[in-house]
Amino acid sequence: MPMAYDDNNIFAKILRGEIPNDTVAENAHALAFRDIAPKTPVHVLVIPKGKYVSFDDFAANASPEEITDFMRLAAEVTRAEGVSLDQGQGFRAITNAGSHGVQEVPHFHLHIMGGRNMGPMVTLRD
């Protein structure tokens, strides 16, 4: 069953100004802020301002302007945090979708993580 958008999710509340955040960057269609429980030295979330549940929802339904602003803000964050390839040693960009992706918040978000080597992305098991 698809995950429905919940207007009371934590990111919707952040976008409405009901919950404070540590903003890194913002533009007309996206917001980037520090994760409250960082897993790496650099751990920033980039979210669209529109009501999109997952990456595939955003990619299929967002306007070209929303997609462009989101992607450009993500690139701006990598540079601002010193992890872009022209400034640092790289980063990982992760998005989770649905129960198999262990998505916790029903609002599309991209984790930009860096500042240390994170090892292999996934260890597969049968």
Automatic annotation (TrEMBL):
Q: HIT domain spans which residues?
A: 10-123
Organism per entry: Paracoccus albicereus
Instruction: Please give the name of this protein.
Output: Histidine triad nucleotide-binding protein
One Pfam family hit: HIT
Upper classification of the source organism reads: Bacteria, Pseudomonadati, Pseudomonadota, Alphaproteobacteria, Rhodobacterales
InterPro entries cross-referenced by the UniProt entry: Histidine_triad_CS, Histidine_triad_HIT, HIT-like, HIT-like_sf
Q: Where do we find the motif Histidine triad motif here?
A: 107-111
Q: Which domain of life is it from?
A: Bacteria
